[in-house]
Structure formats: C-alpha cells, structure tokens
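Input.
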Amino acid sequence: MEYDKTTKKCIEDCSKCYEECIKTIAHCLKMGGEHASSEHIGVLMDCAEACKISQNLMLRMSPNSAEFCEECAEVCDKCAESCDAIGKEDAQMKECAKICRECAASCREMEAAQD
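Output.
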C-alpha cells in the first residue's frame, strides 16, 4: 500500500511514541517512587495503546483513523504533561515528553488532512 506523506509520518511517529512509552514504563518502574505511581504508569500505558491503535488503523487505511488520531493526540499531550511534571531533570522523561508532543502534532496534522 502507498501512503501519502502525512499518513506515513504519522504512522512512523505513532510507532516511535509507542516504543518510547514502553521504554519509559520500564524506566519508571525501575526508578520507583513518584515515577512508578499508578496514575503516571497508567497515562504511559494509555499513550502506548492509543498510538498502537492509531498506527494500526492508518496501516489498513481505516475510515476511522482520523477520529482515533485526534484522540491519540489528546492522550499524547496528557502523557507529555505527566512526564514533564514528574521528570524535570530526568533525560528519559524529557525524551518521552518530546516524542509524545511530536506524535500529538503529527496526529493532528493527519486528522486535519482527512477533514
């Protein structure tokens, strides 16, 4: 299948964000304390799953992908905020927040392109 530039970038960004959230979950559980709070781990898990669902819908060119991309962007924003709040001086948390924001922007571009 051939994807347009916006879709291809969004698929790649969702994959990258999924992987980063999974790595960050492991990092946070190892760190313990606030990093391993159920709220924060839950947001990371939600973000990873939202990215995986959005990616899968785009890969199969589902007509529902734009709607899910908008939801994914919102979850990615929440995850970035959570990472910022907990890990101000933590390189892994900063990287996760950055990648979540990039994915959110890409998902919003994808959603806008489908309107």
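The first helix runs from residue 5 to 31.
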